[in-house]
Amino acid sequence: MEQKLTAVDLFAGPGGLSEGFWQAGFEVVCSVEMDKWAVETLRTRHLYRMLLKESKEDEYFRYVRGEIQRDEILNNHHIRDTLEGIVIKQKLSPDSRSDVLKKIESQLKRMGLTEVSVLLGGPPCELYSLIGRAMYASRKEKYFQDERLGLYGEYVYFLNKLQPKMFVFENVMGILSAVLEDGRKVINSIIEAISDVGYNVFPSLRGDDVRGYVLDAVHFGVPQRRKRVILVGYRRDLSIRDTFYHELYRYTGKNYYTVRDAIADLPPLDCGEGGDRWYGPYDREPLSEYAIQMRKGSLGVLNHRARHHMQADRERYRYFIERSEKGERADLLTLKCEAPELLPNHKNLKTFTDRFRVQSWDKPSSTITSHLSRDGNYYIHPDLAQCRSFTVREAARCQSFPDNYLFEGPRTAQFKQVGSAVPPIMAYYIGKTINESLKNT
Length: 441
Known about the structure:
Blueprint: E1 6-10, H1 16-23, E2 27-33, H2 36-53, H3 57-64, H4 70-77, H5 80-86, E3 87-89, H6 97-110, E4 118-121, H7 130-135, H8 140-145, H9 152-162, E5 166-172, H10 186-196, E6 199-201, E7 214-216, E8 227-235, H11 244-248, H12 259-263, E9 274-280, H13 289-295, E10 301-305, H14 311-325, H15 332-338, H16 392-399, H17 411-420, H18 424-439
Parallel strand pairs: 1-2, 1-4, 2-3, 4-5
Antiparallel strand pairs: 5-8, 6-8, 7-8, 9-10
Helix pairs in contact: 1-18, 2-3, 16-17
């Protein structure tokens, strides 16, 4: 009898990691997250999976279109308690960990499960990122006192208590150089803590060099350059070959998807146009294999509304798009020389001179980040006729979220969710490789 593959997702965000594992055949039995709108997105996605299982996904799209409330669906199918058991809204900390553990164990018992196949998670990365650390440059004492610096300890706690067969730990590249107050590198401390509770981290393709744990999503069919540290390992009592990363890299390709592949088939919008939830049916044919993949199982376009931009910003966008179309690079220093009247009214124009960045049609996008929730200046649409920044759906396409994935909340919250997520397609290949590893145990 084939074993049931299950996953628990900590620090789940909007669910990019668990979406990929679900696509790879895992049942995500619990998602733990503290952010209000990310939790709502998780609930909606888990609801979609429940309805899909019963071939009733039409009800999901009725909800997306605003024809029915989510509560009505939950009441009609008597699944409210089930959904609340799957998605746990709680902050992970030493004070809450025992309560969260009880909820996870209750959910496992409710489902008749005695073991978890894989533990997923990536603690919030602000303190590990280079930008986050720069903010504390003159306040080292406060940096080391920030509780987020040690959040990986919560992950290790659940790893020890749940005893899954395997685990996936994800974080930003900055974690490789981040240090604790005693001078130890955070990454080494994490690997040691994982080892102390009975788990091995698979050796990377660089052996003991931790830089070998950096994966770039673009190599796995995601139209975006996005480097992240991915630690994968297994419980020490299991007989699993140490070849995980070699097996994973079998799925990497030489040809990269581009921004054109990702978004060229989406409806064009002027500033302020579109819909924050349901936009409408597709109005054109897909223009790439990637677009076909993203459209699978969707009746149309969601979360596709353009920002309102001030005219001054649009003029700057126009300048940068025109330069991009000619294959020329431009930044604020170029703008100062060629069109000083378009310079933004910023106090400091000497740093971050590339703060206006056009995403090139024929290259993968740059890394999608939560900065999108503030402004879209780093993510200018390459189409001069539209002359605007990316919508949530365009960013989600570059992150490889399927078109039927609804992001809940106001648009700023949607951007934040998309920017903080693990690309589902990359997660899918990690999950697929773990699936294969578990079959050989």
